[in-house]
Amino acid sequence: MAKPIMNIDDVKLQPRAAAFTAPGELAKKFDANMGFISPLIVALKMGYNLTSVPPGKRAFPHHFHRVNEEMFFILEGTGELRYGEDTFSVKKGDIIACPPGGPETAHQIMNTGTTDMKYLAVSTKISPEIAGYPDSDKFAVSADLGVDADGKPQMFRFVGRKDQSLNYWDGE
User: In the chain, what are the domains?
Assistant: First the structure.
């Protein structure tokens, strides 16, 4: 059985899965290595990860969550937090709260320093979730569907725009 404790120095950072790796020109703007902690310490209702972002990059697009709350603790480096329509400087030791909401709680952390920025990300894991992306006018709906017969996690994710929605009766 896994222990409910882990030292942050023991977290292994890895490149993101292909589905979350920025393609082509977007790779100039987005990049991160991540270490997922939750499964290693058997966390059930909270998600924990260590994220390392290279200089000049962001880990994720500017986004908000309708359901889940996130908190970030800057461990190393300096950067900027885009929050709603505001921008704030962040540095080692800063704690960032991102409650659920709409575009006013949209957030994005950018490394403006010359070395990798590392932060601990903590979030609730309520499913299903709806996220919004103000810069691209997209939304994502995702749900944790448990595990299959082999124990492999199953997820549902749909990314779209409101104007792409089908009529409820379409195809019936």
Answer: 8-126 (2.60.120.10)
